[in-house]
Amino acid sequence: MSFEYWYLFPVSIGVATLAMASGIGGAVFFSPIFLLWLKLEPSVAIGTALITEFSDSNCVEEIVTGSGSWGAPRTTRATPAMTRNGAAET
Q1: Main-chain phi, psi angles of 47, to 5 degrees
Q2: Is 34 exposed, middle or buried (0-12, 13-18, 19+ CB in 10 A)?
Q3: Distance of CA 25 to CAs 55, 63, 70, 89, 90, Å?
Q4: Sign of the C-alpha dihedral computed for residues 13, 21, 33 and 30 taken in this order
Q5: C-alpha to C-alpha distance for 90 and 88, rounded to whole angstroms
Q6: Rounded CA gap, 69 and 85, in Å?
Q7: Helix H segments across 1-90?
Q8: Separation of alpha carbons 47 and 84, rounded Å
Q9: 89 and 83 in contact (C-beta within 8 Å)?
Q10: Tens digit of each residue's pLDDT (9 = 90 or more) over 42-67
Q11: Which of 1, 23, 30, 72 has the fewest CB atoms within 10 Å, i.e. is most exposed?
Q12: In the chain, count of helices (H) and strands (E)?
């Protein structure tokens, strides 16, 4: 195992925290890191950032059920406050 890129672990924790706190996908923050720090080609950097974002185990559930206000009516845990129009669709 090489420790050449050890510094990316704490950076990744910071990026993940920032992405979760802001509600923006992690690929938005990882793409510049891969482009500027690691000097990857743009197509490789963006592809790697998307793979990093979609490798989350909850991502499949979010894609299938939808996330945020669009997916809330299709779940059993939806409340009127969570839905887009204020009324839970069942």
Answers
A1: -60, -45
A2: buried
A3: 12, 13, 17, 27, 29
A4: positive
A5: 6
A6: 9
A7: 8-22, 26-32, 42-54, 57-65, 68-71
A8: 32
A9: yes
A10: 999 888 888 877 766 555 555 555 55
A11: 1
A12: 5, 0
Residues in the chain: 90
Cα 51 from chain centroid (whole Å): 10
How many CB atoms sit inside 10 A of residue 67's CB? 13
Decide if 35 contacts 28 (C-beta within 8 A). no
The half-sphere exposure of 80 on its side-chain side, counting CA atoms within 13 A, is 2
In the numeric block, which tokens belong to residue 8? 């990316």
pLDDT confidence bin for 10, thresholds 50/70/90: very high
CA atoms within 13 A on the CB side of 43: 0
Q: Are 42 and 27 within 8 A, CB to CB?
A: no
8 A C-beta contact, residue 49 and residue 26: yes
